[in-house]
Design a protein that fits this description.
This protein has about 450 residues and is of the alpha+beta class. About 30% of the residues lie in helices and about 25% in strands. It is built from 11 helices and 20 strands. It has helices at about 15-20, 45-60, 100-125, 140-155, 165-175, 195-205, 275-280, 325-345, 390-400, 410-415, 425-445, and strands spanning about 5, 35-40, 65, 85, 130, 135-140, 165, 180-185, 190, 210, 220-225, 225-230, 235-245, 260-270, 285-290, 295-300, 310-320, 355-360, 370-375, 375-380. The strands form 3 sheets. Strands 1, 2, 3, 10, 11, 12, 13, 19 and 20 form a 9-stranded mixed β-sheet that branches. Strands 7-8-6-15-16-17-14-18 form an 8-stranded mixed β-sheet. Helix 2 runs parallel beside helix 6, helix 2 runs parallel beside helix 9 (about 390-400) and helix 3 crosses helix 6. The longest helix has 22 residues, at about 100-125. The model has no long low-confidence stretch (mean pLDDT about 90).
Length: about 450
């Protein structure tokens, strides 16, 4: 029986600024002609490249091809905030504490971070792109401080260390008097996400893995015991396919009506000159997540990560057709300019150099889709807003399934339920966006 999936992928507006600030790359090599491979991975983000690396570890002589619709680090992998978080980080909660087995999740998250750290060492990736600096939950109100205190107690119950910071310590760190307190946790890796992904791709290429960019899969067809993937200029016949396309799993015909297609937005300053840096104060690298999950994330990076810059990220919209408009970006840019000015009045009015959207995918019951979909077809998708860590895990797990291996990762995701069905349209989009706007409003200065 022949089974065909025809994906529909829309471009995301705005540059992947993390990639933009690192400069140009050698020309892409789209797939051309008809070829064969033992494994094909669709998607060259955190999940896809982690899957390819895990296959290479398990089957050193296998032929492996990775396809991506755009350039490496131009998709969602180059559009996130770059926090690779080890601790519970449930975006649906008030204080990030999860409803499940947080101890098990911490262990899995740390396994993902170790996997990434080993890749940095093995492939010679610049360690500035994988900075084990930890992060801070910033609080700008008494309510937010209470969230931090609640989260700290939860962490203590798990035997995890955290450190409370007062307003002066927060100002010494960030240069901003906006925060009344903070909660530091040491285990988060602060990524230059595009730099890490570029380095991972280069390391895989050196191990004989072919990565074809600008090669969207336009058709996935079952042909007897094999699969054929068609791209604009070529095709591949393979026995095993791993889809690491996050929310675009729906595009391939799976979990339709069960995935929430969310877009978050971010802006980045131009490179700050010496006078501006002196006016700003604070340390040269840090990352602050909001105590309220719907608040504003802020990072500062330095010249070894792409320039002395500040990145601000907030606002969310649900776009079920996986398409976001430039007007969505423009509206978010205005909000983020206001958030930036509140935090850094000494830099108020500074025009941002980059503004962009990033695609993530959530499920109502916070589960991923890491399983076998069909004979020879596997999924490492749906990261629930935790693309760096969860993406690494689902990529590893999908690779292990495809190679017939079991592990703590495969067992964890195999035990998860199917994503819950979403309300029908138009109620889903109207209701979800109303709730997102309400939670954004409730987060206020956070």
């Amino acid at each position: 029986m022949t089974q065909t999936y025809i994906p529909n992928v829309s471009p995301i507006p705005g540059p992947a600024a993390w990639n933009e600030i690192l400069g140009s790359r050698p020309a892409a090599r789209p797939l051309k002609g008809s070829v064969t491979a033992d494994f094909v991975v669709v998607g060259a983000g955190f999940a896809g490249l982690s899957a390819a690396r895990r296959i290479r570890q398990l089957q050193p002589t296998a032929s492996i091809i990775v396809l991506d619709a755009v350039r490496v680090a131009e998709g969602s992998a180059g559009r996130n905030s770059g926090f690779m978080i080890d601790l519970p980080h449930d975006l649906a909660s008030d204080d990030y504490a999860g409803a499940g087995d947080d101890r098990a999740l911490i262990d899995l998250n740390r396994a993902a971070i170790q996997f990434g750290g080993d890749a940095v060492d093995e492939y010679g990736i610049d360690p500035n792109y994988f900075d084990r600096a930890g992060k801070v939950n910033g609080a700008a109100s008494a309510t937010a401080q209470a969230h931090n205190e609640s989260y700290a107690k939860h962490l203590a119950s798990l035997g995890e260390y955290s450190e409370a910071l007062d307003s002066q310590q927060m100002q010494d760190l960030t240069g901003s008097s906006h925060y009344v307190s903070g909660l530091f946790t040491p285990g988060t890796v602060m990524l230059q996400p595009a730099g890490y992904i570029r380095g991972l791709a280069d390391g895989l290429k050196a191990q004989g893995i072919a990565i074809h960019e600008n090669s969207p899969v336009t058709m996935l067809t079952r042909e007897g015991s094999a699969w054929r993937l068609t791209t604009p200029k070529g095709s591949i016949s393979t026995g095993k396919v791993i889809l690491t396309v996050n929310g675009h799993l729906e595009s391939f015909g799976f979990e339709r009506g069960r995935l929430m297609q969310i877009f978050l937005y971010a802006v980045m300053t131009p490179e700050l000159d010496e006078a501006t840096l002196a006016c700003l104060g604070g340390q040269s690298r840090w990352g602050v997540t909001p105590s309220d999950p719907m608040g504003t994330t802020v990072r500062r990076i330095d010249t070894k990560q792409g320039g002395n810059r500040i990145i601000t990220r907030t606002c969310a919209t649900l776009n079920p057709n996986r398409s976001v408009t430039q007007s969505n970006v423009a509206r978010a840019e205005k909000v983020m300019q206001r958030k930036f000015d509140q935090r850094f009045p000494q830099l108020a009015g500074m025009k941002m150099e980059h503004a962009w959207a990033g695609h993530l995918c959530l499920t109502l019951n916070s589960v991923s889709v890491m399983r076998q979909l069909d004979d020879g077809l596997y999924s490492g998708c749906v990261q629930n807003g935790l693309g760096t860590t969860r993406g690494t895990l689902t990529g590893i797990g999908a690779a292990e399934l495809a190679c017939g291996q079991t592990s703590a990762i495969t067992r964890h995701f195999a035990a998860e339920a199917q994503p819950k069905k979403l309300p029908p349209q138009p109620f889903q989009q109207i209701g979800a966006n109303a709730m997102l706007r309400y939670r954004e409003w409730r987060a206020k200065s956070e």
